[in-house]
C-alpha cells in the first residue's frame, strides 16, 4: 500500500511511527482510520520485539492525512499520540495468526477532504456480493 511513498488524494491510510528514546521517529507500519479516534493495524507492528506484549502507547505516534512519506512538510498531515494499544487476544507472533490490533488515539482526528475513515461493509453485505467485482 505504501511502497511508492505516494498515497491517494483522500487518505484513509495512517502511518505508524515508533518514537525512539532520543525523540526521533522511525516509520514502522501502516494502518487505517476506522473512527476519529481509532486506527486498525497489524499486531506485529505494535508489540515488544519477539513477544505478544503491546508496546507502551507513549512510544507510538500515528500520522494521518499523509500523501507523500518522503515529504515532512505535507500540509494535510497530522501527528497524533496513542493512548492505548489493544491486540487480538489470540495473536500468535510465531504462527502469524490473528495479527490485528487497534490503537486509540490521544485526540480525535478531524475529518476533511484529505482524511477520512475507511468504509466498512454493512451487516447485510455478503462475501458473494463482493467476490470477483
Strand order of the largest sheet: 1-2-3-6-5-4
Q: What global shape is seen?
A: globular
Oligomer: single chain
> Treating each run of at least 4 consecutive H or I residues as one helix, how many helices?
1
Percentage of residues in helical conformation: under 10%
Strand content: 25-35%
Report the CATH topology name.
Answer: Thrombin, subunit H
pLDDT averaged over residues: 81
Largest sheet: 6 strands, antiparallel, barrel
Amino-to-carboxy terminus distance: 20 Å
Q: Into how many domains do the coordinates divide?
A: 1
Structural class: mainly beta
What would CATH call the homologous superfamily?
Trypsin-like serine proteases
Rg, Cα atoms, Å: 15 Å
One letter per element, helices H and strands E, the order comes to: EEEEEEH
What is the top-level CATH class?
A: Mainly Beta
pLDDT < 50 stretches: 1-12
Count the strands?
A: 6
What is the CATH architecture assignment? Beta Barrel
Write up what this structure looks like.
With 133 residues, this protein is mostly beta strands. It has one domain (13-118): Trypsin-like serine proteases (Thrombin, subunit H), CATH 2.40.10.10. It contains one helix and six strands. Mean pLDDT is 81; it is low at 1-12.
Amino acid at each position: 500500500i505504501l511502497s511508492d511513498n505516494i498515497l491517494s488524494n483522500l487518505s484513509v491510510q495512517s502511518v505508524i511511527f515508533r518514537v525512539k528514546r532520543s525523540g526521533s521517529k522511525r516509520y514502522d507500519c501502516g494502518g487505517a482510520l476506522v473512527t476519529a479516534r481509532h486506527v486498525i493495524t497489524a499486531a506485529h507492528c505494535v508489540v515488544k520485539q519477539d513477544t505478544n506484549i503491546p508496546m507502551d502507547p507513549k512510544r507510538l505516534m500515528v500520522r494521518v492525512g499523509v500523501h507523500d512519506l518522503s515529504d515532512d512538510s505535507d500540509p494535510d498531515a497530522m501527528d497524533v499520540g496513542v493512548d492505548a494499544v489493544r491486540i487480538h487476544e489470540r495473536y500468535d507472533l510465531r504462527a502469524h495468526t490473528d495479527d490485528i490490533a487497534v490503537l486509540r488515539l490521544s485526540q480525535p482526528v478531524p475529518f476533511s477532504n484529505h482524511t477520512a475513515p475507511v468504509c466498512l461493509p454493512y451487516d447485510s453485505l455478503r462475501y458473494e456480493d463482493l467476490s470477483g467485482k
